Amino acid sequence: MKKIFLIFKNKKIMYKLKDDIVQKIIDCEVQRQEDGLEMIASENYVSKEVMMACSNVFTNKYSEGYVGKRYYGGQENVDQIELLAQQRALKIFNLDENVWHVNVQALSGGPANLAVYLGVLNPGDTILSMDLSAGGHLSHGHKLNGSGIYYNIISYGVKKDDYLIDYDDIEQKALKYKPSLILAGFSAYPREIDWNMFNKIANKVQEKYGYKPILMADIAHIAGLIAGGVSSSPFPYFDIITSTTHKTLRGPRGGIIFCKKEFQKNIDRGVFPGIQGGPHENIIVAKAVAFGEILNSDFKKYTENVIQNAKTFAYELQKLGWNIITGGTDNHIVLMDITTKNNKETGLGGKIAEENLDNIGISCNKNVLPFDNRKPMDPSGIRFGTSAITSRGLGQNEIISIAQIIDQSLSNINNPDKLIKLKREIKNICSKFPLNY
Ligand SMILES: Cc1ncc(COP(=O)(O)O)c(C=O)c1O
Q1: 176 an active-site residue?
Q2: 332: Cβ below 6 Å to ligand 1?
Q3: First to last CA, the chain
Q4: Where are the domains positioned within the chain?
């Protein structure tokens, strides 16, 4: 087993823990990440800089409150780093600081969403959001999430014929249920979003009822693609925008909330004291570093490659007979129906497919498909993403090989010798693209 301190020895940057038990688990995870391909759509590999920036003395510091208004002393450096992270966050999306505010304290994407609801809504208010099975997220109204417990959730979905967002359905429901907030945000939707259409629908509500619903976008998955300028942006039309920082933005695990200045007080209150106490300033350091990387690297090229890789991957799987939901992708997500190949039943479900691919070194996740009649723990779909493998440097040739390996793996589920061979092929690809830590 390769020890993490040996990998980093020459660069003298990684500390080997004295706690052997914990260190051993970290070593195993390093090995797993080195030897396998990360194709879970919500994951990425951060740079060495971001990784190192997560570990710093700000972890010692309590800093409840906001820049210039804290509840404890000793905040001069905390204020500087938080302000820098805010300035850079606005810059990566080209936002005017006179119009937009950003809260960088949200601990993650789910808490960021809850903070918004808490900040701008009253319990029982109506939220119109995408149904989980159509590609929405738990924090958009699942009955076991705070969103579904404290608010009245009305769901919209996708059309049966093409699995694209049903904007007519959104309009009808908006006019019927008079939502306080309309939420556009997705975890498993592979296509471009017509952000302006949401704005038009909100305007129709205003014409009919004299108020405009708050427009909230959750861009957790596609934030990096928007920052790179390769996906369309909700900023021209929306009031509040939440995101994670660890997916396509390639930062540390965390959340972020942008809002028009008129919502600043509500959003900041929603985060603290709404759902959080002290912010994790050590992670805000790493957010600042990640945003700096976006500003100072060819991030556009990275995001173009992410999408090109996803498109090729979808195309290759289709050529091999697999059904790709919506017939392709416009972003980093590829959703595949695992239950049929060449229009014939495979006898497979998402659970066994996920396990099968995990065993040969490809991480991906089982995913409910729109109108799925299988259970969430063993649905009809698998979701892939190309953000992480693109960060690792894989390009078109490797993508074509990976599609073929996946096809062979799923077609030889009961053939251990074949699976061992495929695992070796994946390891061989990985060895050509070592993790750069
Ligand atoms: C659209 C969307 N919003 C929110 C989240 C939740 O983020 P976190 O896991 O950081 O709480 C996710 C996570 O995958 C997501 O896809």
Answers
A1: no
A2: no
A3: 17
A4: 57-296, 299-432
